[in-house]
Write a structure and sequence with these properties.
With 355 residues, the chain is of the alpha/beta class. The protein is built from 8 helices and 15 strands. Helix content is 23%, strand content 23%.
Length: 355
């Protein structure tokens, strides 16, 4: 193997802020030079594309912990799975499967030294049941976000017959969060998503009690029908008008898990984005807890959470769905599709097979 290729940012989104495939480019790039001491040569096998990357298309991300992508430069994503091709680090050997939960470039081959802040981890493939993509989903940052969001911000008490509502419920985080909420003790789980196929996935495969297609149904009316006792926990992946509707039906002392706001990612607003005065008043009057959730603030709980998630996956108590795009050259296309709701479960890109 002597060629290499990567995905670059060609231009930033236009005036309406909506990403399109022509924002991205695909081109050959230099093959990594000979390894220096401590370096590892890695072949990318799978990439994750995530809504949170949208801010990196802007000149200013609006957050301190990620930087914007540069025009004409290689794109750095978050999560990836790869195979070690060569190694001058004694901790890694050719053939090892590795993953990282941050700073994985959208490139076929790259070199990296082990870093304390963004470490590479060898994957115990015996725990994956043949699915090398699980570190991109439930056994990675997605699973940690869902698990710790539910545990740390949900306020779920099994004895109180609570109702959980999840927006973006058929996506990567939402689909896992709904299942975890049930396991944690919620007696009713309702998902909001964007197609009948997704609704069927939630109710027939994941065991949600109900699902609302926000594109064809009146969310306010359907929510009232499916949640007759109000909403106690809201896992918010969407924001904007949909979340205002859910919050309007939340009970006193309830909890919003503020995970994502994909409905406003294409708008030039701060994060978390401002909300209407009527929603602010509802939150205050009902003593609703709505504070920002950032999974990176709970790094000390990652190991325990990952152990529990692995147990739940291996026992079949959590089901995982993926939508796969083939080819590194289609990574930008996969990102655009995901931002437009084209995925069920986690959107991933299959780049190469293990050697």
């Amino acid at each position: 193997m002597s060629t290499n290729a990567h995905v670059i940012l060609v231009k930033r989104p236009g005036t309406n802020g909506t990403p399109t495939a022509d924002n991205f480019g695909f081109e050959e790039c230099p093959f990594p030079a000979e390894l220096e001491a401590g370096e590892i040569l890695i072949k990318t096998l799978y990439l994750s594309v995530d809504p949170a990357l949208r801010c990196r298309m802007n000149e200013d991300t609006g957050v301190h912990y990620v930087t914007p992508w540069e025009i004409g430069k290689e794109i750095g994503g978050f999560i990836g799975v790869g195979q070690v091709i060569k190694s001058s680090d004694p901790a890694f050997s050719p053939g090892d499967i590795v993953e990282a939960q941050a700073a994985w470039p959208w490139v076929a081959l790259f070199k990296r030294k082990q870093e304390e802040q963004n470490p590479l981890r060898k994957v115990d493939t015996s725990l994956l049941g043949g699915k090398l993509t699980l570190p991109l989903t439930v056994l990675g940052l997605i699973g940690l976000t869902s698990y710790l969001g539910i545990k740390e911000k949900g306020g779920i008490k099994p004895s109180q017959n609570q109702t959980l509502v999840v927006s973006g419920a058929a996506g990567a985080c939402g689909s896992v969060a709904g299942q975890l909420g049930r396991l944690e003790g919620c007696t009713r789980v309702v998902g909001i998503c964007g197609s009948n196929e997704k609704c069927q996935f939630l109710t027939q495969e994941l065991g949600f009690d109900g699902a609302i297609n926000y594109k064809t149904e009146n969310v306010k009316e359907r929510l009232a029908a499916l949640c007759p006792d109000g909403v106690d926990v809201y896992f918010d992946n969407v924001g904007a008008e949909m979340s205002d509707t859910v919050i309007s039906q939340m009970n006193k002392n309830s909890n919003v898990i503020l995970c994502g706001q994909i409905a406003v990612y294409n708008k030039d607003v701060p994060y978390p984005p401002p909300i209407p005065e009527s929603t602010e008043t509802r939150i205050k009057d009902m003593n609703i807890n709505r504070t920002r959730f950032l999974v990176l603030n709970y790094a000390d709980k990652f190991e325990e959470a990952m152990t529990k998630l692995a147990e739940l996956v291996l026992s079949g108590k959590i089901k995982v769905r993926e939508t796969t795009m083939e080819g590194l050259e289609n990574t930008g296309k996969a990102f655009v599709s995901m931002m437009n709701g084209g995925n069920i479960g986690k959107q991933i890109v299959h780049v190469a097979d293990p050697s």
